[in-house]
């Protein structure tokens, strides 16, 4: 299956097998490409996981497939969860704690996006993306707070680079992701004294993701590789590796930051 990891990851990556033994990760958007590979890496390196999504069948199927990656891994899929509804998230937290014991890491990755000029964007359309990306991230932090506090946990937001410039057709998502970065920084400061870390990862043009396949305007897609200073698209393994670093003890003093994984592409003013 393209864009997913297998057991060769812990044989070939610089990370040690077992570094996440005993850890539990709670992930919104875990059936999507980016979040899925984040979970796969953590599970391969020892963690158990709960992945949440609106679509029950897709979420449960992804969970079952990820669980196969490591003998003994426990991965549960919780469908019917909309991050716009904090109660559905709270219920998913209860289910996770009952089935997996606790939550150490939270990945707030659920997102919605489409391309639209402001002229074609209704107020409801703008609000929909703000609600999924920004309010959904807040709701995820809110619902998992007790677990983060109890376990001196780490919340990792999946952000973007859209808002670093004025990007056409992305007013809604850019505003939402700017808010996500701001929320992440506030949480780092407010929750730091409790031993909780808060960071974000900002993927750039990653091959095989919706950001490239559906959301990159055609004129940019054709020139994507030459527009990236590192002269290649990113891979899902690039995202997995950065995620593992951030959640590992190697990053125990890293909080309040955005890790941009984009080959420096946004700095040319053409982010994915
Ligand atoms: C203009 C649009 C539109 C479009 C929807 N709307 N698509 N407006 N152009 N292409 C409007 C609708 O007309 C409606 O407004 C409002 O948005 C809400 O639409 P619904 O379909 O009712 O919302 P909902 O069912 O909640 O769906 C949310 C969604 C959808 C965001 C619109 O695309 C979705 O669920 N996506 C989830 C998957 C996804 O997008 N993943 C991408 C993540 S990648 P009116 O006024 O008509 O009622 C990502 C990477 C970012 O985020 C960086 C990459 C560049």
Give short descriptive properties of this protein.
single chain, 272 residues, alpha/beta, Rossmann fold, seven-stranded parallel beta sheet, 10 helices, globular, binds hexanoyl-coenzyme A, DECR2-like, 2,4-dienoyl-CoA reductase (NADPH) activity, NAD(P)-bd_dom_sf, EC 1.3.1.124
Compact overview of the structure:
This is 2,4-dienoyl-CoA reductase [(3E)-enoyl-CoA-producing]. With about 270 residues, the protein is of the alpha/beta class.
Your description of this structure?
Helix 4 packs parallel to helix 5 (123-150). Strands 3-2-1-4-5-6-7 form a seven-stranded parallel sheet, sandwiched between helices. The protein has ten helices and seven strands. The protein has helices at 8-12, 33-44, 56-67, 86-100, 123-150, 171-191, 210-213, 218-221, 224-227, 236-247; strands at 24-28, 48-52, 75-78, 105-108, 154-158, 197-203, 258-261. The chain is globular and about 45 Å long. It has a single domain (15-268), classed as Rossmann fold. Helix 2 links the parallel strand 1 and strand 2. It has 272 residues and is α/β, with parallel strands linked by helices. Helix content is 43%, strand content 12%. The protein binds hexanoyl-coenzyme A. The site of hexanoyl-coenzyme A has 20 residues, from helix 5 and helix 7.
- Tell me the structural class: alpha/beta
Number of discrete helical segments:
10
Task: Please trace the helix and strand order, writing H or E for each element.
Answer: HEHEHEHEHEHEHHHHE
Q: What's the CATH topology label? A: Rossmann fold
Q: What topology, given as strand order, has the largest sheet? A: 3-2-1-4-5-6-7
- Give the CATH level 1 class: Alpha Beta
What CATH architecture label applies? 3-Layer(aba) Sandwich
Measured as a percent range, the helix fraction is 40-55%
**CA-based shape:** globular
For the termini, the CA-CA separation is 24 Å
Organism: Sugiyamaella lignohabitans
Protein name: 2,4-dienoyl-CoA reductase [(3E)-enoyl-CoA-producing]
Pfam family, one: adh_short_C2
GO molecular function: 2,4-dienoyl-CoA reductase (NADPH) activity
């Amino acid at each position: 299956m393209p864009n997913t990891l297998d057991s060769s990851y812990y044989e070939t990556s610089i990370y040690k097998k077992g570094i996440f033994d005993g850890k539990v990760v709670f992930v919104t958007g875990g059936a999507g490409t980016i979040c899925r590979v984040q979970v796969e890496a953590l599970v391969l390196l020892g963690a158990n996981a709960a992945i949440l999504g609106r679509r029950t069948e897709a979420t449960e199927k992804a969970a079952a497939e990820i669980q196969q990656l490591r003998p003994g891994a426990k991965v549960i899929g919780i469908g019917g969860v909309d991050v716009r509804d904090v109660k559905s998230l709270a219920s998913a937290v209860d289910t996770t704690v009952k089935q997996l014991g606790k939550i150490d890491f939270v990945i707030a990755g659920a997102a919605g996006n489409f391309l639209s000029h402001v002229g074609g964007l209704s107020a409801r359309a703008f609000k929909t993306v703000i609600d999924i990306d920004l309010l959904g991230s807040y709701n995820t932090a809110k619902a998992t707070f007790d677990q983060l506090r109890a376990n001196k946990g780490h919340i990792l937001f999946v952000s973007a680079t859209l808002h670093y410039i004025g990007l056409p057709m992305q007013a809604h998502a850019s505003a939402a992701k700017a808010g996500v970065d701001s929320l992440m920084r506030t949480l780092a400061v407010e929750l730091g004294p409790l031993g909780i870390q808060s960071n974000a990862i900002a993927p750039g043009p990653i091959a095989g993701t919706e950001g490239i396949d559906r959301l990159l305007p055609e004129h940019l897609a054709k020139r994507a590789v030459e527009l990236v200073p590192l002269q290649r698209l990113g891979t899902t393994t690039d995202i997995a590796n950065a995620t593992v670093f951030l959640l590992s003890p190697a990053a125990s003093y890293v909080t309040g930051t955005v890790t941009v994984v984009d080959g420096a592409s946004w700095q040319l003013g053409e982010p994915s």
